[in-house]
Specification:
- Helices cover 14% and strands 44% of the residues.
- It is mainly β.
- The chain has an eight-stranded antiparallel beta barrel.
- The relative contact order is 0.19.
Length: 200
């Protein structure tokens, strides 16, 4: 058995992407040696999310998550996310325009650590815009359900950088579901707590 040049190229790009993500997280952690203390009140993290479906598109968008001391002592976050290929691979190209609308629940382990393991559960809605009436009979929408495992870097200032690997439980093959809804994805998010109050 042998791999095609295209397959090897895709695997090489994935390897370099994972190495780059790990390097960025390591450097970020080294530059922010002290962990973020949990605020006394509510937390509202707003920011950007970049998502790469393995073997297909890059999608970018916005994300928000909320936590409170009454929600598992600020370990549990409730969030919403919108990512789209319109701001990624489909920007200035003929790639399919697709949108992901997600609601999520995230749980952070080891809340006093600088680098905290996380698990996230997503549910939502997917829509693909094929851009032509020729494809109107193809599946264009789907529900979304996906778990994620990863880490969150939480430095002393109110910034969070998290990276995770996710798996879409509902996928498609172009007949029973949208053909661009692939199973495995990686994501990186950068957020800021807009409710943070400076002590200075």
């Amino acid at each position: 058995m042998h791999c095609s040049t295209h397959t090897l190229f895709r695997r090489g790009r994935l390897y370099h992407r994972l190495v780059l993500t790990a390097t960025v997280l390591s450097c970020f952690a080294a530059l922010t040696a002290r962990a973020q203390e949990r605020p006394a009140g509510a937390v509202l993290d707003l920011g950007i999310r970049s998502q790469k479906t393995i073997g297909l598109y890059t999608e970018n968008g916005i994300t928000a998550q909320f936590a409170h001391t009454k929600l598992a002592n600020q370990r549990l976050y409730i969030g919403v996310t919108y990512v789209t290929s319109r701001l990624g691979t489909a920007l200035n190209s003929n790639a399919i325009k697709q949108d992901n609308y997600l609601a999520s629940v995230l749980y952070l382990f080891r809340p006093n650590w600088l680098v905290r393991p996380l698990v996230r559960l997503n549910a939502g809605y997917f829509r693909a815009d094929y851009g032509s009436d020729l494809f109107r009979d193809l599946p264009q929408t789907s529900l979304l359900a996906s778990p994620e495992l990863g880490v969150c870097v939480c430095p002393r200032f109110p910034l969070k950088l998290n990276a995770s690997v996710g798996y879409n439980l509902l996928t498609g093959d172009g007949v029973t579901g949208p053909g661009t809804l692939y199973p495995v994805f990686v994501q990186t998010s950068l957020t800021w707590n807009v409710l943070h109050k400076s002590t200075h």
